[in-house]
Amino acid sequence: MNKAELRKKYKALRLELSEEKIEAFSLEIANQLLQLPVWEKEFYHLFLSIAKQKEIDTENILHILQGKDKNVVLSKTNIKDHKLEHFLLTDSSVIRKNRWNIPEPEGGIPIAPAQIDVVFVPLLAFDEQGHRIGYGKGFYDNFLSECKADVVKIGLSFFEAEPEFKEVFSSDIPLDYCVTPNKIYSFKN
Q: Which of 54, 58, 93, 136 has its CA 20 to 30 A from that of 155?
C-alpha cells in the first residue's frame, strides 16, 4: 500500500474504536512509556489530542510528566509556513482549539526546538524500521529537523507496525521508539 492508502486504512481503523477502547488503549500506552529510558530528561514535547480524529488521549502522559515535575512543551500550528511554534506549559497557559479542532496554547514562554529532549509524535501508522505516516502535511518532519540530533522521538500508536513502507523520503525522520498498548518497538541502533 502507498501512503495515501495507509492513511485511509488507519483513519478507518481508528474511527471503529469505541471511546472506551480509546481510553483503555491510551492508558496502556502511558503505562508502557514508563519502561522507556527517557525519564531523566528535562523538556518533553507533547501533542494534545484531537478527540474528533480519535487520536490517542495524551492526558495520562501529561499527568505522568507533571507528576515527575518535567517541563512540558506544547505546539501551536502555523498553517501558512507548515511550522509549529512551541511554548512551555505553565499554570497560566490558555489552551484553545483552533479551526481544525487542534487544542493549542494561545502563547506563553517560547521554547526553541533545540531545547527539547523528548518528542511524543502523533501518527496514523508506522513500520518496523521506525518510519511513520502522519496526516501528510509535514509539520512534525519540519519540527523534528529543527531539533537537536539526539532528541528522542517516540511515536504513539493504537496499532502494531506494518512490515515496511514502500514510500520513504529523505525528509522523513524516523522514530527512536513507538509505543502501542501491547508493545514497545525500539529502532535505536
A: 93
